[in-house]
């Protein structure tokens, strides 16, 4: 199905649906969480789409930045999104707050590469929360935007913490997360 966009595999008809679901050459969906954007396109067009359709997303340059999530006490499910550019690639930083059990909210922080799964294997990211006497750190390889935030959370490939922990590290309702991207 994706031969016109670069896939060169020839498979038996029974194997085709499984491959098409994960094929790197299938169109990329808009990776922006918390929106109902129906955009689809080539990997090379994702950043252009994000810059034009989702102008509120800030992009910071460098391997080591601070992702500031403001007003973490907002009620309900909330997504904070930021872009980080380094090593010639773009990374989407996502902090997601959602209710897991009745009245129990959790935060999920992860990094997605605007790129393929194979490219994502070349990077590591570290998320750090700092407090006066506390530090919480998570290190992992980023997921590709092909997989998305839901897959990262579903696979526990993210930093997870509850509201009490968020408040421990927050300053006036704002949460700063140090994000460091490195090459493997």
Class by helix and strand content? alpha+beta
Number of strands: 12
CATH class: Mainly Beta
- CATH architecture level-2 label: Sandwich
Low-confidence regions: none
* Element-by-element helix/strand order: HEEHEEEEEHEEEHEHE
| Proportion of strand residues | 35-45%
Main sheet record:
6 strands, mixed
Query: Compute the gyration radius: what is it?
Result: 17 Å
- Assembly annotation: single chain
Looking at CATH, which topology would you report? Apoptosis, Tumor Necrosis Factor Receptor Associated Protein 2, Chain A
Total domains, how many? 1
- Intertermini distance: 33 Å
Shape, principal axes of CA atoms: globular
Please state the average pLDDT score.
92
How large is the count of helical segments? 5
Considering the protein shown, what is the CATH homologous superfamily? Apoptosis, Tumor Necrosis Factor Receptor Associated Protein 2, Chain A
- Percent of residues in helices: 10-25%
Protein architecture, described:
The chain has 184 residues and is α+β, with helices and mostly antiparallel strands. It has a single domain (55-183), classed as Apoptosis, Tumor Necrosis Factor Receptor Associated Protein 2, Chain A, CATH 2.60.210.10. Helices cover 18% and strands 41% of the residues. Strands 3, 5, 6, 7, 10 and 11 form a six-stranded mixed beta sheet that branches. A hairpin with a 2-residue loop joins strand 5 (78-86) and strand 6.
């Amino acid at each position: 199905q994706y031969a016109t966009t670069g896939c060169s595999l020839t498979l038996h008809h029974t194997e085709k649906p499984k491959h098409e679901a994960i094929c790197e050459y299938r169109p990329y969906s808009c990776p922006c969480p918390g929106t109902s954007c129906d955009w689809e396109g080539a990997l090379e067009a994702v950043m252009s789409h994000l810059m034009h359709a989702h102008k509120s997303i800030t992009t910071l340059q460098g391997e080591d930045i601070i992702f500031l999530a403001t007003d973490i006490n907002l009620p309900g499910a909330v997504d904070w999104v930021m872009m980080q550019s380094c090593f010639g690639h773009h990374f989407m930083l996502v902090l997601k707050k959602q209710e897991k059990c009745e009245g129990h909210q959790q935060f999920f922080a992860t990094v997605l590469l605007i790129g393929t799964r194979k490219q994502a294997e070349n990077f590591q990211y570290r998320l750090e929360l700092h407090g006066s006497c506390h530090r919480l750190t998570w290190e992992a390889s980023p997921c590709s935007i092909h997989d998305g935030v839901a897959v990262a959370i579903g696979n526990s490939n993210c930093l997870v913490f509850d509201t009490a922990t968020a408040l421990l590290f927050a300053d006036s309702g704002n949460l700063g997360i140090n994000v460091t991207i490195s090459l493997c």
